[in-house]
Write a structure and sequence with these properties.
The protein has about 475 residues and is mainly α. It has helices at about 10-15, 15-20, 40-60, 60-65, 75, 85-90, 105-110, 115-135, 155-185, 195-200, 200-205, 215-225, 230-240, 250-260, 265-290, 290-295, 295-305, 310-320, 325-350, 355-370, 380-390, 395-415, 425-450.
Length: about 475
Amino acid sequence: MRSAGDGHVHPTQDDPVARALSEGVGGPMGSRGAGHRWWTPVRVVLVVTAVCFALGMVQKQACFEETWSNGQDRYVHMCYSDLPYLYTGRAMVERAWPYTDDEQVRDRYEVMEYPVGIAYWAWGTAYLAQAADHLGLPDLAERAQQPVDTLFGDPEIQSEIRWYVVVNALGLAALALLTAWFLARTHRRRPWDAMMYAASPALALTALINWDLLAVVLVAAAMWAWSRDKPVLTGVLIGLGTATKLYPLFLLGAVLVVCLRRRRIRDFLLATAAAVAAWVVIDLPAYLTGPEQWAVFWSFNSERGPDLGSIWLVVQQATDTAISAHTVNIGSWLFFGAWCVGVLVLGLRAPETPRLAQLGFLVVAGFLLVNKVYSPQYVLWLLPLAVLARPRWRDQLVWQAGEVLYFVSVWWYLGDYLAPAGGGDAGVYWVAILIRLACELYLVGIVVRDVLRPQHDPVREDEYVAPPPRLVTG
């Protein structure tokens, strides 16, 4: 594909949707166009990311004003977030170490059910929030005697909760910007692909639901490191991501396929060793101070049954049949194992070595298709991989349309506006789940097609453009 004057592939030249939309503002970028000297593609992407994230903060404003105390407004306005509830529900309000085995803390609070990376972040930002609210850390002696179920409504603690959300929002905004930077720098000639992340409705709607952006930025950084031929750094970032959320671990499968195709097994071994070392180093403080508390993440997810957003929930409710956690565990892991074998075969038999983003996207998508829960923010897991795997606006919009529909439906379902969350006919919610799955499978199908027919891959398109015919004179 022809480059703009700055040497970058411009979306108005490269993408049919962007080209069509550009007709209203002067048409596609010309081959001699270079744009403004200061407004480089990366800077434009960062500004759009900031605006998108700010819109997401505005979308949470209705809940923020009431400190998430109105149980129905969080569903009516779709502004729910885990952050304020976990602040008081997981001992952050008392600045307790998430993995303490202190009986007084454990009798009052549930153990943090997330991996250590998120637990460390949630604990550290609690210190910052309390210091910002009180201009110094408050005395917690009286708080430790107060019943836990009254903490959320305490005016003093509600002020801390608002500061806690603000501190986390600022931190997560920085991570969103860093993610955009990594995506814009992964393909040197294609920084504009990151705009599909920067302007994503999924980013605006879900970035503040939980701390998933902690893992997202590490995945984006790993993709960038691999593009710079740094297998050890790639492994370290994957290990750090796995200590934050489990899914970055699956990128090692994608690395394996690429290394098998390129006969670079040493790079795979280096990346794997670095990932294991990084994961151990990050997890060690939690394990040494509270091994039982550290293991809660694993036991919680193992014992969890069919939950929100999953195909298992649709089957359970539609058939009025109870599906045990054991059945879901066996079924989902068998499917995911078979899916990974399929990705392996696809990668090994493809005409050319697939790109890491394509294989990573396929593996993570397979995991999410049959996972026992699909929280709305899980779309962020796929977003950076999807943008790099299939940088086409049409396909991104089709996929994210399904995600936005699911985002709306899950809150209205929980608010009993579609059907009682505790049971009953939830047909509209089931349809939303199935549409989301269909849109995800659509993008999976497009990426598989690109792997099997590399001439359809936008990133490889230059390689398949026929050279111009020679001019014959005489």
